[in-house]
Amino acid sequence: LSDIEIALIKQVAGHCNGQLADLQAKVETLLRTSLDGYPPGWLVYAPPLPELEALKEQETAALNRAIAQLRLRMGANSFARLDGFVNKIYRTGTWKTAPVAFSKDTEYGFFLHYFAALDKLAQENPLAKKEAARRQDELSKAGLNESNRALLLKVALDYEGQTPPGPIMPKEAVPAMTMPPGPTPGLSVPTAPAQPVAGAQRIGSLQSTEPAIGAVTPMNLQTARAGLQPGPSNGRLDPAEMEHRRDEAQLNLLSHIAQLRAGMSPATFQKFDTYLRQLYKKAGWHKAVTMVAEPPTVEAKGK
User: Fold this and answer.
1) How far apart are CA 244 and CA 256, in angstroms?
2) Residues whose CB is less than 8 angstroms from the CB of residue 181 and which lie 6 or more positions away in sequence, other chains included
3) Cβ pair 211, 86 in contact under 8 A
4) Element (DSSP H or E) covering residue 8
5) How far lies 203's CA from each of 98, 206, 210, 302, in Å?
6) Which pLDDT value is given to residue 168?
7) Is the pTM of this model over 0.85?
8) Residue pair 252/163 in contact by the 8 Å Cβ criterion
């Protein structure tokens, strides 16, 4: 690349980074005002915040505008050289992440933990009380009467009492919430796994799915698998024991889902199922997959 082209990259990157910094500041403000007094790890199992989704879309748009500007002003040949260079320095491994939607069981597990925790938190947190009232209203509009909602809370509280914080995770997945750098009241950085876990991270919050030229991407805060399913948080379990505990947790979850199904009419349960699917439709895992032989071109991608 020529000196002129390098100067252009710096110019476009600087402008893009400024936009991303503004968006990150908005995210930090949003988290401070929306999650004040909430426990650490809340975003791991709570439904994605719509405001964060909107900021994610703005981030993706800013990245795509910057890439398109470079492609246009540099020309096809020079941009191809830049593309190859970026792929070389950012795609050094043999795998990448790909989004995977939650299974229905995962959605139920997340929501039962969330609903129970929200009920308890609402007793002393004004923000949580407002959020709990909003969820009750949503459930009512979805077709659940007062008796159905009481059953849902009873099952959720029972499930939470029998299960460690956080629903059952796929073997290959590690959920994560994404935040900009800097402290946020009411939140803390979750403990990292004792060993690297090849797998997935949760999506559904502000993050760029691919590295972009000059971009200051938000920090990924991964939550250890040990903190989300049975077993000591800092100990290492035998794989067979982990598999056994995972199976037990799965059976426990299915038992509680069956209680909901038995306590509601088929039509009402289907309405609740549809509500959950809608609530978590923009959430999911990032799963590790083998990279293709020819990496794709530099591009910021939305979910």
Assistant:
1) 19
2) 24, 218, 219
3) yes
4) helix 3-34
5) 10, 8, 13, 11
6) 55
7) no
8) yes
